[in-house]
Amino acid sequence: xxxxxxxxxxxxxxxxxxxxxxxxxxxxxxxxxxxxxxxxxxxxxxxxxxxxxxxxxxxxxxxxxxxxxxxxxxxxxxxxxxxxxxxxxxxxxxxxxxxxxxxxxxxxxxxxxxxxxxxxxxxxxxxxxxxxxxxxxxxxxxxxxxxxxxxxxxxxxxxxxxxxxxxxxxxxxxxxxxxxxxxxxxxxxxxxxxxxxxx
Length: 199
Fold this sequence. Notes:
By secondary structure, the chain is α/β, with parallel strands linked by helices. The chain has two domains: 3-61; 102-198, no CATH class. The chain is built from nine helices and five strands; from the N terminus they run αααααααβββαβαβ. It has a five-stranded mixed sheet with strand order 1-2-3-4-5, sandwiched between helices. The two termini are 35 Å apart.
């Protein structure tokens, strides 16, 4: 809306470009417009120095902030399934219903996770088999993920022994209650610093 108020198309294009290149927040864009950055840039004898100074002091939006906006994930079509129950429809079995949309592939879930964690989509992705389950490794094991069903303790233990920074799996992936009970204990024993996320 702020850019739409700028009548001069050249000025508007300038601020659009600077906002994109500088990853400015809305408040930073407002500050730069209010401080007449466009005009100062036009009058400056050392445009590069002014640009460096502005970049150094500008409030930037991070990829995590940008992608944690639910509108962004909805636009990408990667939001989770809406799960609503009335009290009369609810039973204990519904506690274990999968909240991932049924048409999502493992690759969809992996890319969604990479975006949410700020990992570049161009990062090296490898697909391995551990104890008969598909395990994804991103950036040499920085992120490891398993979205298969019936994941057992052997798979979890082998992944934990590789000490990934992040490990992600589906909520419905664990084979049984015993695996669920031992999940945290396995990670504490083999790789306690790994950040674990459940979708």
